[in-house]
Amino acid sequence: xxxxxxxxxxxxxxxxxxxxxxxxxxxxxxxxxxxxxxxxxxxxxxxxxxxxxxxxxxxxxxxxxxxxxxxxxxxxxxxxxxxxxxxxxxxxxxxxxxxxxxxxxxxxxxxxxxxxxxxxxxxxxxxxxxxxxxxxxxxxxxxxxxxxxxxxxxxxxxxxxxxxxxxxxxxxxxxxxxxxxxxxxxxxxxxxxxxxxxxxxxxxxxxxxxxxxxxxxxxxxxxxxxxxxxxxxxxxxxxxxxxxxxxxxxxxxxxxxxxxxxxxxxxxxxxxxxxxxxxxxxxxxxxxxxxxxxxxxxxxxxxxxxxxxxxxxxxxxxxxxxxxxxxxxxxxxxxxxxxxxxxxxxxxxxx
Length: 351
Ligand code: MRU
Description:
The chain is an alpha/beta fold and about 350 residues long. It folds into two domains: about 5-135, Four Helix Bundle (Hemerythrin (Met), subunit A) (Up-down Bundle), CATH 1.20.120; about 140-345, Rossmann fold (3-Layer(aba) Sandwich). The protein has helices at about 30-40, 45-65, 70-85, 90-110, 115-145, 170-180, 195-210, 220-225, 250-260, 295, 335-345, and strands at about 5, 10-15, 25-30, 150-155, 185-190, 215, 230-235, 240, 245-250, 265-270, 275, 295-300, 300, 315-320, 325-330, 330-335. Strands 6-5-4-7-10-15-16 form a seven-stranded mixed beta sheet, with helices on both faces. A hairpin with a 4-residue loop joins strand 8 (about 240) and strand 9 (about 245-250). The two termini are about 30 Å apart. The model has no long low-confidence stretch (mean pLDDT about 95). 5-S-methyl-1-O-phosphono-5-thio-D-ribulose (MRU) binds near residues 45, 89, 164, 238 and 248.
């Protein structure tokens, strides 16, 4: 399955809002089309959003190059527009800043716009390729957390799989690797209201790989744990702060609280591109709020009284005390997270 492909002129995205009922691709040859796709969740998941934004940057920079005098200002406006699409997943900002730094650095070196355009395309491709390698490392590191007796069932929330990244995924990468290695027997996938990433996307990915998956509604997670049906939880992340607080899809926090109550380990699998080394704790993370209709409508039908008040945060923050370990491409880190994450920051050059 290829959820994102760049052919030099067009970014092709698998439209995730149509899955699993329809395989539909969107051809983006304008950065605005990519911005809309991110906003509408046609492309979603933190690393995938970052990579899509990097390719959108290439498209926008090419357009900006038509007026070399105004190139820098036009690029800055385009970056602002892309940053406004979704506020929580830090990969979006990380990828755009990386692209912007490349322009600035090469401008200072006296390189011309044409040359910079070539470098930008290479950088976007590098962001995508690096994420593939990161997925492989996270999968290996995470699989080691499970014994080789094929007896463990895990619960996951939302979709942190191939659709959300450049390769096999983060949480689902670990699950895929552990399954192949005889360490995991079954996956329980929370449906993940309101947009059903668990039921529509995670269950679809796992079914395609022949990995046994059971869908439950979000409110069933506690009972599934109480009945002893799962022995671990593993989720992805949209932003992790210096102290190890984790923003992820709404409902993740409830799952973490339930896991604690039932003595089940709660693992987070995330690349270091999802760490926000500039943010001290989860209170600082901007939480996206989405349209009320996502809650009041279901499969095209209205399921709530007209005009009723709705609260629809797309993410929540799980405090570090509920996190058993964070699986990164550099290894598995545990509490005290501030110490471990500061080490990662230093290793990555303080980005
Ligand atoms: O709103 P979404 O579908 O973009 O939310 C995605 C998640 O919360 C994922 O768990 C997260 O981005 C990790 S993807 C590897």
